[in-house]
Amino acid sequence: MIDFENIDAEVPGFKPELFVLGLTSLVSEEHKHLGTITVVFCSDEYLLEMNRRHLDHDYFTDIITFDYCEGDLVSGDLFISVDRVLENSLKEQVGFLNELARVCVHGVLHLCGYGDKSSSERVVMRNKEDHYLRLF
Length: 136
Prior knowledge:
The chain is α/β, with parallel strands linked by helices. 51% of the residues lie in helices and 21% in strands.
């Protein structure tokens, strides 16, 4: 099950059914089973405070992923800054919903076991993101 919540940010033009379909397909193609994923949309300020409190990081980010996976069961919370996604979409010159999809895919890929700390991990992550975005 994939649920969506808004804390202090609205997502213009968001169609949850498309995201559910795309993210469910991702989990299946990664040979995992879908547990419960909650995607929470919030502001920069809200996510900055979470970043400080939970990760001891003092900077803005587009997503924080909390992993509750057990074995092949993919579960977790994705907290996404709508402000940061909008800013990144303008910087990268892509549509807002396309960037939002990329960030959601990125978070679910983390839940599927992919990292992005090293340059080689970032290459794999970006290739996986591109692959799954084509399926959206």
